[in-house]
Specification:
This protein has about 550 residues and is an alpha+beta fold. About 25% of the residues lie in helices and about 15% in strands. The chain folds into 3 domains: about 250 residues, Cytochrome c-like domain (Cytochrome Bc1 Complex, Chain D, domain 2), CATH 1.10.760.10; about 140 residues, Cytochrome Bc1 Complex, Chain D, domain 2 (Orthogonal Bundle), CATH 1.10.760; about 140 residues, S-adenosyl-L-methionine-dependent methyltransferases (Single Sheet). The chain contains 16 helices and 19 strands.
């Protein structure tokens, strides 16, 4: 295979690419001044249809997470500009919510320990953890030599099992793809390892939790209904490895060429592709407003790292944390403005939720934190009409309609967590224990056949006591009691009872927590069965000596 060294426009780094892969991508994306720069592909990971299909399946499969509720696509959705439309609060450096250093980012996993059992996080307890920074767009990630806001994790793909360098350069996509899967606040749990991930994939049904599968994904699964089969189709044999997972995910992302915006059509000669209002906004972008100094048309970024003065450097030193260079303090990657009108958050700490607010930030000359602030940020004078024209150009002229509508190649399945926003449905009311606190039911994990990570938790219980989880085939009749204890599940019928000791400080009201884990067998006859559960917590302050959670309905599918 011929190998050639190319230089990506505005990225002063050499990247080895396969000549045949580059030709294929140029056919999709001619590049040049009227569109995106040519896409560079590492020679060690050429694009193939089978690999891209596998990557798309992995990207949207919630089973890649440790609790079957988070996919890569959970936080990176095309219709949200490649980011996350959800907005949760991280308490920031001081650990306190409602203070000036709070950031606004993506909700992730409830923390779990090395055994994948619920374990309180310092800042979040047993509520979902929230990432420190907003989710960057994945749509144009293939054009960046450095990913994430601080440029981590680098351009080499290193095999996490052997420590060997698999791709020496140009592998930022591959390298980044491995990070969230093991992170305890994003898709993993404390101490999650690759054998757990790959073993789970080998046994589960691809996209078992998803519905409305895109045609290319459905076709691939129809031919190869198991992950070993899909990996064989993509790589030649059934081995599921971290490197192959990374290569497949990166390949899928490289097929997402968002270059059909009105601006692209205008730049290629279609004079009516932009409205007169948008053309005025484009001229402001390249002139008075000075946006093009950092957001160079084409990719609509210069791919550099800059300090906008948004937050004190002590809260997040950005690029300096990766490079170790003091000159990089407080600098963050300049994102592409393609599809920016679809984004719910833009800056790394969030906070500004509309283009109107973002434009006002720039018109004022950026943030007030002056240490190492970029000198290009200067106040500009724009009338309200000019601001409206500029926003029209950004919001509409730079939006690819396929991205907004999630049409191929930006189509995707419907996720289980989207269809079940609060997990499995709860019913009835619990009864309080010490301190008048009702134990909480944690039932967020889907009860799908073959789920090796199925678990149910209890929280807000009496610390250091014992609890019992009841799972029954039927709900109890309303008003059922046993020894004065209200009962929600038919414990007198077909039922199982699982006892566990609770964590937390002994005797402290609301501090207790616990988990029961049990895999759901990969037995098709279980699909369609519905069971019901509730927690009993031994607590002398409760009715009949026990506090009770709400009931949960668990439809097995």
């Amino acid at each position: 295979m011929d190998v050639t060294i190319f230089y990506l426009s505005r990225l002063a780094i050499p990247i080895l690419v396969s000549a045949c892969s580059l030709t294929a991508l140029r056919a999709q994306n001619p590049g040049g001044p009227a569109g995106l720069p040519p896409l560079i592909v590492p020679v060690q990971n050429p694009i193939t249809q089978a690999k891209a299909a596998l990557g798309k399946i992995l990207f949207w499969d919630e089973q890649l997470s440790a609790n079957n509720t988070v996919a890569c696509g959970t936080c990176h959705q095309p219709s949200s500009g490649g980011g996350d439309s959800r907005r949760s609060t991280n308490p920031g450096l001081d650990g306190l919510l409602g203070t000036a250093d709070d950031t606004f980012a993506s909700p992730g996993m409830r923390r779990s320990d090395i055994n994948n059992e619920y374990f309180p996080a310092v800042a979040f307890g047993l509520s979902p953890q929230v990432t420190k920074r907003t989710s960057p767009s994945f749509l144009l990630a293939a054009w960046f030599s450095d990913l994430l806001y601080d440029g981590a994790p680098g351009q080499q793909l290193i095999d996490p099992l052997t420590g060997l360098v698999v791709i020496p350069a140009g592998a930022a996509l591959e390298s980044q793809a491995l990070l969230p899967i093991l992170k305890f606040d994003e898709m993993g749990h404390d101490g999650r390892g690759w054998p757990e991930v790959t073993g789970k994939l080998a046994a589960c049904t691809p996209l078992a939790l998803a519905t409305a599968l895109p045609p290319d994904v459905a076709a691939a699964i129809a031919v190869n209904p198991t992950y070993p089969g899909l990996f064989t189709q993509a790589f030649g044999d059934a081995a599921i490895t971290p490197v192959r997972i990374a290569m497949a995910l990166a390949t899928y992302e490289r097929t997402l060429v968002a270059d059909q915006t009105p601006w692209d059509a205008f730049a290629r000669g279609q004079q009516n592709a932009l409205t007169q209002n948008q053309i005025a906004g484009m001229n402001l972008f390249n002139g008075t407003a000075r946006c093009n100094l950092c957001h160079v048309p084409g990719l609509f970024t210069d791919t550099q790292f800059r300090n906008l003065g948004i937050r004190p450097i002590a809260e997040d030193n950005g690029r300096q944390g990766v490079s170790g260079n003091v000159a990089d303090r407080g600098k963050f990657k300049m994102p592409s403005l393609r599809n920016v009108g679809l984004r719910a958050e833009v800056f790394h700490p969030g906070g500004l939720t509309s283009l109107t607010l973002i434009l006002a930030f720039y018109v004022a000359g950026g943030g007030n934190n002056l240490d190492n602030k970029d000198s290009l940020l200067q106040p500009v004078v724009l009338s309200q009409q000019q601001r409206n024209q500029l926003i029209d150009f950004l919001s509409n002229g730079l939006t690819d309609p396929r991205v907004a509508a999630e049409q191929a190649p930006f189509d995707r399945p419907s996720l289980w967590s989207e269809r079940n926003l609060i997990g499995n449905p709860l019913f009835a009311f619990g009864t309080p224990g010490t301190g008048g606190i009702v134990p909480g039911m944690l039932a967020e994990v889907p009860a799908n056949v073959g789920n090796v990570d199925f678990k149910i938790g209890v929280t807000n219980a009496l610390g250091g006591t014992f609890a019992m989880l009841s799972i029954a085939l039927q709900r109890a009749p309303v008003g059922t009691q046993i020894n004065g204890i209200p009962v929600l599940t038919n414990v007198g019928g077909v039922a199982i009872f699982i006892h566990t000791a609770l964590g937390g400080q002994p005797g402290v009201a609301g501090d207790g927590y616990g988990t029961v884990r049990f895999p759901i067998p990969n037995a098709p006859f279980l699909a369609g069965l519905t069971v019901f559960g509730e927690w009993f917590v031994w607590d002398s302050a409760g009715v009949g000596g026990a506090a009770k959670s709400r009931g949960v309905t668990l439809p097995i599918f």
